[in-house]
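User: We ran a pulldown and think these components assemble together. Before we commit to crystallization trials, I'd like a predicted model of the whole complex to look at. Sequences follow.
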Amino acid sequence: MNIIAVGLSHNTAPVDIRERLAVPESRMGDALARLSAYPGIKESVLLSTCNRVEVYAVAEEADAGYASVQQFLADTHLALSAEQLIPHLYWYTDDRAIRHLFRVAASLDSMIVGEPQILGQVKDAFALALAHKASGVILNRLVQKSISVAKRVRTETKIAEMAVSVGYAAVELAKKIFSDLGEKTVFLVGAGEMAKLAARHFVNCGVRQVLITTRDPHSAIELAKRFNGVPIPFDQFRREMATADIVLCSTCAPHYLIRTEDVQRAVWERFNRPIFLIDISVPRNIEPAVRDIDNAFLFNIDDLEMRVEQNREERRREAGKAERLVEEEVDVMLDWLKSLEVTPTIVALRRRAEEIKRTEIEKVMGRFPQFSTQERDAVEGLASAIVNKLLHGPLVTLKSEAQSAHGLMFIEAARRLFHLDKDRAGKEPEKDPSEERRQAEPISEVEPASDPSARHPLKARPLE
Amino acid sequence: MTVFFFTTTVVLYFLATACALAYLLRRSEVLSKVSLWITGAGFLTHTVALVGRLLAAGHVPLTSLHEAMSFFSWALVLVFLGVELRHHIHVLGSFILPLALISLLSAAALPREVPSLGPMFTAVGVHVTLSMLGTVGFAVAFVAGIMYLIQDGLLKSKRFNVLYAKLPPLDFLDGLNQKSIVLGFPFLTLGIITGAMSAEVVRGSYLSWNPEQTWALVTWVFYFIVLMGRMTVGWRAKKAAYLTIIGFAGVVLTFIGVVLKGHQVA
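Assistant: Here's a predicted model for the assembly, 730 residues in total across the polymer chains.
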């Protein structure tokens, strides 16, 4: 059994491929159900953001898993053939898959390294996988670990401090068009997370006014309160666009909301004063041809990356530290995975019982030095009998269940019930109780993977 | 003595321009500071040279083309120093200083003798001074226009290079363009009026439709339309940048025409 990661990101695929593969939240359930139905896929988590579409899965066999996930991605968008898709994909197994997820969650693989949104997106993807019972023991642990790694990276390196968010990049660009943001109006179209963050940046820079429109009038009113702005009815927003100097667009609409003629009219009504449009939506919401209009400056999510290109060198140093930290955590994760194999668990369980038996016998012997050899043998025999009888059930069950679909769950349960991971506690980062609780929940609900003995071929298929 | 100061100025402006152009390619801000100090020194020697000539000639030293070009260069540097000290747009020097250097070099190439215009020299001096100040305005608008188009192009093509980082915001450049024309235009208007008046005294008619006068009027009408267009139908930003570049090209051609004809001003 292998952990695999298959996907594409801003590093390998342009936005027009990514936007076609992106899975909207509303369809996430279907997608996860579909994914689980592919042969050989035991557990799965689907991460779909503007910058990446990735599947993390536990597969019975890596190559078959790759094939299934690849097929799943190709089936996600009918107009996208496997031939078009494959050149943009990457494949990772086991330690490389783990490392990849840790790097993604820690924002080391982000377009803007260190940007904080990705962690929230990983959490959301995990919550969805839990809700749809797609993930299991291994992925639950893996994703939670990735979240704690991300937090560690953020507190122990300066990567987040130095990072430039998409929002900040947008503000920086605006400052190259407008010398005084204090007299400018920002128009927020849609309530996408990134746009809200960007809008927050603009508000912090003291823009004069914020206009907000969303398809759902209530959320516009609610956002308007938050930004001290003015809600605009959605059906009027194109007309109001001329009053805006900066348009931030981020909606879930699958088509262009703002077309060339809308911007042309706005520029005309603005007497050719420049208008700055930022399209953070994937799929894009502003027609790309808008960039050919004089005095209209359109930037999409890919463009924002270039803006921070110059700062990358500096950030790389901090990223180096973070990478070393990720390496450490990958080792911890691999140790844990190894522990899920049945034989080491049985050995550990026996050793633990033996330890307890030894200490308790020594205590008794210390208290009763007058015991004869016969009496001593009797006490030791009693202790051994109790331990063996007690262990018999768990050991037999572990051995028999190890090959079943619930095997991992039994192994994990045994390790926890008998505190078998105590000796590795020093290497584990501290877990907060809520995390512990969340981790416990899915065990009873989800179908975990089986066949732990076939784990760890530690092979990874290179990018083809 | 004035020749020495004039020559020193040429050398200093040359060095300042070289630094300012090298600054375009480098990330460091040091070159712009060096360039600014050299420009300041050049401006002082230039002022001394102009004052020296004024004292030597005993009148406003603005009657020959040599003087006109030298004064143009001086006024352009003055405006540059003013804008630079107020707004700290270092990169402005990289665009304005070459222009100042070219006009100073052309001044150096032109005959330097003080023409004898008899009783008319004061009127001619005033005419040339005003026209040159107007032209300085158009030159700054021209430079702002070029910078605007470059920054516009960089933003549109998403090339965030060193130059992008150095160029000021688009609306600053558009504002500079507008202010330069708004300030330059009245000077040109007054320059044309005084020119017509001196022409009336010399030739007996305000307007003889000679090529210089015609071109001056065409220039005036052109910038008038540019200004009106901005105020009424939104000829700003990119359009304004193109128009001011075309306008200044016209002004330069007029000057070249004047020089080639060996015509004396007015």
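The longest strand of chain A covers residues 2-9. That may be worth checking against your pulldown data before setting up trials.

User: Thanks, that helps.
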